[in-house]
Amino acid sequence: MRVRLEHVGCGFDALPPLFEDLNYDFRPGDKYALTGPSGSGKSTLLSIIAGWMEPTSGRVARDGINRISWVFQNPHGVGPRSALDHVALPLLAQGLRRTDAEAKALALMDSVDLGSIAHRPFRQLSGGEAQRLLLARAIAADPQLLLVDEPTAQLDRHTGESVNSALEAISARGTIIIVATHDPATREACTHVLDLGKHRK
Ligand SMILES: Nc1ncnc2c1ncn2[C@@H]1O[C@H](COP(=O)(O)OP(=O)(O)OP(=O)(O)O)[C@@H](O)[C@H]1O
């Protein structure tokens, strides 16, 4: 199982390319920080890696990757539904009984410091809580590749550390994790750094 960038480049319209000739291997059990200034193409590269967007040049090889989860910078959920329901849903879809799904969902929510808001409706969550909730849901889906866009941007240090620990725990299960981040603590918590600032043309 791995994801490989082969001579990947991308640009929009007549603008200069964001990046060109990116060659990179992403492997299970490692955490990759995708860094670079605002506008350098981090979210664009996540879209390309996920297969949502074709690169302008080169290709992405995804070997043995069937389940991809993506936690967006701007989280969306179902307003009136409880936070717990959001995390339990993928577990129910995997065939767990509701009591087991909810117990597992609650443990995942605890791991990102959300145990106390489990029964609140999604619409009452703050931006940082909503994004952590969707991280817990993404982990519940048991992905082989987890893409996360700026998970700690809206968080205080302690909460940011719990997010980094949750990423560590899922990485230890063999998931490939790629995190677009400006946060030095998240970058430090990763095993590798791919800096798009250095690939700008
Ligand atoms: N569909 C599009 N058409 C034209 N330009 C686009 C499109 N999508 C993104 N861009 C431009 O490409 C550049 C890279 O955007 P991207 O969101 O990938 O950057 P980023 O590194 O994730 O930025 P940030 O750190 O601010 O989130 C930006 O200048 C953006 O305006």
TrEMBL record:
Q: Does the keyword ATP-binding apply?
A: yes
GO cellular component labels: plasma membrane
Which residue spans adopt a coiled-coil conformation according to this UniProt entry?
Answer: none
Q: Give the taxonomic lineage as stored in the record.
A: Bacteria, Bacillati, Actinomycetota, Actinomycetes, Micrococcales
Q: Please identify the protein, giving its name as recorded.
A: ATP-binding cassette domain-containing protein
InterPro entries from the UniProt entry = AAA+_ATPase, ABC_transporter-like_ATP-bd, ABC_transporter-like_CS, ABC_transpr_LolD-like, P-loop_NTPase
Q: Which GO terms describe its molecular function?
A: ATP binding; ATP hydrolysis activity; transmembrane transporter activity
- Which organism is the protein's source? Arthrobacter terricola
Could you list this entry's UniProt keywords, alphabetically sorted. ATP-binding, Nucleotide-binding
Q: Which SUPFAM superfamilies match?
A: P-loop containing nucleoside triphosphate hydrolases
Q: Which residues form the ABC transporter domain?
A: 3-197
